[in-house]
Amino acid sequence: MSVNGNKRSVYFGIIWWAWRLLGAVELNARNLGSYRFWRAVALNAIVTAAFPVMLILTTLSFELPLDNLMNFNISLTSVATSVKFLIYVKQLRKIPEIERLLTKLDTRVTTNEQRAEHATTSRMLSIISKLYTLSYVAIGINSNVSVFFREQRSLPFPAWFPLDWTNSLTNYFIALMHQFLAIFMQILQNFVDDLFPPLVLILIAGHCDQLVLRLSAIGYDQSDRRSNEQKLIKCIRDHQMICRLHLLAMEIISWPLLVQFIVISIDVGAALCALLFYVESMQERLYYASFIFALALQIFPVCYYGTLVEYSFGRLHYAAYSSNWVDQSITYRKNLIIFAERTQKLPNQRAGNFIPIALTTFLANCKAAYSFCTLIADNGTDK
């Protein structure tokens, strides 16, 4: 299955734009005869592979605890961002199938009530996309601008660089441009990797809710029994498509979310410790506050909509029996019973088949972050 990165994608337009800009589409296609592929390889070698290594090489090598915490945060976040991005690159071919399933499900929206539900889903997609865009633009500006307000020559993030930029203006310019490029790409990678999971979960929950409306309305109009049997069969096929859609989504986002859940609890704990005990200037306070907000933004929406998807799938069982099944044919009732039993089994929704994608995981991350914060603070006090 080819990956075309369709510019006219109804739901994932901004995501395809970001993946094309980052070279993900070319890396997935692996067209060795294309210059775009080698351009993507060179770009990601400089940023996705090299930048985390440069950060790691200076880990815990600074005199001030705040610098060490900052470098630890950025290093861990950078490594996690690169790992998530490469996982998405590998799974990119499954997204066109998701878009085709969504197109088929959209054609099933017929009544005004379903259109209103579909419009609500579209509005939520727009709100989430704008929220992520504005948040990551603010983070990008805050990350890059701070270097211009420092008294001494420095880089946006403490990192190793092969050239001596402290004594050469030319080398300093090269190092600065490299970090600006790396920061831009890593923020864009984080943006697209963090935006896709909540978007696809919103769509799944929305189509579940629309299926609930179609199911519960069967038998209450003037249609004959044969027509109602066909309506039920179409709803069963809709359910199969939604289950397939959910399965594809989990195959794509499961492992990146596992990386995200583990790393964010550590990152938030370290950033919180820096904010509470080591930060002095207002600019640094704003940086760490926005950093913690960005980390929370990475997991709260996906946890919330993961819970919503589970709730929406659970409603299908009750929607089946909300139809006027009593007055229907024996064939209808047999199919309904089989379908209702199938809807009782909720789809597997775990990050890495291990951590639930639900609000309980967000709360667990907050507790883990606080524990890590107190651990660092206690060790710092002992020293």
Task: Characterise the protein shown here.
The chain is mostly helical. The protein has helices spanning 13-22, 24-29, 35-56, 65-91, 95-106, 112-145, 169-216, 225-277, 282-322, 330-343, 359-382, and strands spanning 350-351, 355-356. It has a two-stranded antiparallel sheet with strand order 1-2. A hairpin with a 3-residue loop joins strand 1 and strand 2. Helix 5 crosses helix 8 (225-277). The longest helix is centred in the middle third of the chain and has 53 residues, at 225-277.
Structural category is mainly alpha
Helix content: over 70%
Lateral arrangement of strands in the main beta sheet: 1-2
Averaging pLDDT over every residue, what do you get?
87
Shape: elongated
Largest sheet: 2 strands, antiparallel
How many individual β-strands?
Answer: 2
**Helix tally?**
11
Order of helices and strands: HHHHHHHHHHEEH
Ends distance = 57 Å
Task: Please mark out the parts with pLDDT under 50 across 5 or more consecutive residues, or reply none.
Answer: none
- Cα radius of gyration in angstroms: 25 Å
Approximately what portion of the residues adopt beta-strand conformation?
Answer: under 5%
